[in-house]
Automatic annotation (TrEMBL):
GO cellular component: ATP-binding cassette (ABC) transporter complex
Gene Ontology biological-process annotations: response to antibiotic
Annotated compartments: Cell membrane; Membrane
Record carries keyword Cell membrane: yes
Domain of life: Bacteria
UniProt name for this protein: Transport permease protein
Coiled coil (residue ranges): none
Main location: membrane
Keyword Transmembrane helix: yes
Membrane topology of the entry: Multi-pass membrane protein
GO molecular function, one term: ABC-type transporter activity
Length: 247
């Protein structure tokens, strides 16, 4: 545990020194939210104010940007030789990867807080009870944890940080064929099956319902089940890939 905390502190310090990447990771989700609310929101009918509808999707996209940073950081460590030095100091692979994931959680929480603050400034008004807000935070943290472990696995799979950066594009695109920006029923019929059954839709629906104090049905449990499965898969794949890379 102490090794993992040390690795997490190292990753956070490296992120703080990379000012350009830090500003980009914080600003892009905010800019995307402003574009959707002010440029497209007036043309999209969601049965209420569009900012109320779109914020949960932006929070999910924000986590995706952060996971892309994690993929590049892991790939940079693996290709730069620093992992061999850590192993000579008896720092295990689990601690190295857990440190990257923990740092990703911290970065994503900072970015999500900024998105939420700007959302409040432009009119977002959560109506959730205290319990609903805590449940929404728990689901968001579970999703950040899940996507961070996938980012770590991608970083181990990629040969260079530049190749790993493509992961950010993929996870940033995945919310679009979901209920993040428009209701699923407004999409073409052939897309409904994927949009309704991909992992991001229950996460977004759970966040939206909990934050706005609306009925959520089974969405929170589906979201947590998806996140738990992704975490287990991400950890297993990351462990296997790490052993292969250092063998």
């Amino acid at each position: 545990m102490s090794d993992a905390l040390t690795m997490a502190a190292r990753s956070i310090r490296l992120s703080a020194r990379n000012i350009d990447a830090l500003i980009t990771a914080l600003a892009l989700p905010v800019m995307l939210m402003l574009c959707f609310v002010y440029l497209f929101g007036g043309a999209i009918d969601t049965g209420g104010g569009y900012v109320q509808y779109v914020v949960p999707g932006i929070l999910v996209i924000c986590a995706g940007f952060g996971a892309g940073t994690t993929a590049m950081s892991v790939s940079g460590d693996m290709s730069g030789g620093i992992v061999d030095r850590f192993r000579s100091l008896d720092v295990g692979g689990t601690a190295i990867l857990a440190g990257h994931v923990a740092a990703s959680m911290v970065r994503n929480l900072a970015a999500s807080t900024m998105v939420f603050a700007v959302a409040l400034a432009i009119g977002f008004r959560p109506e959730a009870t205290a319990g609903g807000r805590l449940a929404a935070v728990a689901i968001l943290l579970a999703y950040i944890l899940a996507i961070s472990w996938i980012g770590a696995a991608v970083g181990l799979l990629a040969k260079t940080p530049e190749a790993a950066s493509g992961f950010a594009f993929f996870v940033s695109f995945l919310p679009y064929p979901s209920s993040a920006f428009v209701p699923v029923e407004t999409m073409p019929g052939w897309l409904h099956g994927f949009a309704l059954n991909q992992p991001l839709t229950p996460v977004i629906e759970a966040l939206r319902g909990l934050l706005l104090d609306q009925p959520v049905g089974a969405a929170p449990w589906q979201a947590l089940a998806w996140c738990a499965g992704i975490v287990v898969a991400g950890m297993a794949v990351s462990a296997a890939l790490f052993r292969r890379r250092v063998s």
